[in-house]
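REVIEWER CHECKLIST
Item 1: Sequence provided? yes
Item 2: Single chain? yes
Item 3: Sequence as submitted:
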Amino acid sequence: MPKEQAINLFHQGYNCAQSVFAAFAGETGLGQDAALRLSSAFGAGLGRMRGVCGAFSGLAMLAGWKHGNLTGEPADKERIFALTRELAGQFRAEFGSLQCRELLGLPADAQEAARPNDRTAAYYAARPCERCVQFCAQKAEELLKM
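Item 4: Structure as written out by the authors:
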């Protein structure tokens, strides 16, 4: 199941975006390596800048793959934008925010380096990331069945 694969990838050290997106590599036809590379910059709120949650970014990428526009027509763009906004509303309802910084409870002025944290039991216990990955992988499973 892709949801379990997403958590497995996260526990292997992949970032939240990679964990969600690459769990569905078979469905996209990209292959695992391409999916991991494509989604790698989106982790930790885009390059560890703590913006939009990486798990949600992985979900949004899958939404675009399945339902994205192939033309520049406004109606085509509106469909994927509406779907993305709907998914964002569901994520916010579950977690209270779409922003990595807020999900982690970090102050707005906190300065962080690009270096990721070590993955320890304390790391997993102190963060909602695992739940965010699970939630987004579940939504992706539902989305890809549409």
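Item 5: Key structural point noted by reviewer: The mean pLDDT is 95.
Item 6: Recommendation: ____
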